[in-house]
Amino acid sequence: MLQAISLYKKFKTKEVVREINMELLAGESVGLLGPNGAGKSTTISMLSSLVIPTSGDVLWDDKSISKNPEPLRKTLGVVPQEIALYPELSARENLAFFGRIYGLKGELLETRITEVLKKIGLSDRQKDIVKTFSGGMKRRLNIGAALLHKPSMLIMDEPTVGIDPQSRTYILETVKQFVEEGMTLLYTSHYMEEVEMLCDKIYIMDQGRIIAYGTKEELKELVSDNQTIELKADLFTANFEKALGEHFPKATLRIEEKILTISMSKSEEPLATIFAIAAANNVVITSAIVKVPSLEDVFLHLTGKALRD
């Protein structure tokens, strides 16, 4: 359905995207992961015809969109990372505006607005001004604007950033329903579990390049020889972290909310050593869990960065 061929983008002297090759088949749900600055948003902008590549091409149904992007635009829905709504208009007025841009009018437009409001759970707030909405409601309306023309493909660029857990769950369940109904999806997120939940195939970007792609199972095979150990303590001291790093120089360590995660080779048997280092540095470990490799372990292995860095 959509294919990127050797996409390259340079802004002045900065190379942002380098030789990207991607393919989305009809009905596929595809994740695009990468640390901040990896080039994801620029890639999405080129795939959706909003940014012209410096070189390379994008094909829609085997035809280049460079000179004629209209066939793609008529059937593509895009949910941008930033909220793209008119805050002084009501929810229904916003949808009416975007519907007209898609060429909808009259009874068909009104019907589609009513259907979309129901799908995104905002029927009872349709006459309210958008500036009074919560962040989650604005995100849902942003998604609704992309659905008005019944797109066959949806591109979503971090659609759950900065919203409450209830709204996030609602959005994820809605998107999951789109996927089950056969919509083609390209999805980027800073939340690994979202990609695990929604996507059949995953591309991982770093420094403007695709560095790995495949199904979740195929990607996890890349770290099948690794193990992840999750430690909990009231306080991890700097000396403890330094000692761990010196004893396990090839391991990857990160701390998040009183949880220390260590990724290392399965050939090592580290728990006794870790507890000894903790005792020597006055760190009381309250929990230690050895986990099977996850998608986030693959990401860390390939990029050396946590997804939220």
From TrEMBL:
This is ABC transporter ATP-binding protein. Keywords: ATP-binding, Nucleotide-binding. SUPFAM superfamilies: P-loop containing nucleoside triphosphate hydrolases (SSF52540). InterPro entries: AAA+_ATPase, ABC_transporter-like_ATP-bd, ABC_transporter-like_CS, P-loop_NTPase. One of its GO terms (molecular function) is ATP hydrolysis activity. PANTHER family: LINEARMYCIN RESISTANCE ATP-BINDING PROTEIN LNRL. The keyword ATP-binding applies. Residues 2-232 form the ABC transporter domain. It comes from Psychrobacillus psychrodurans.
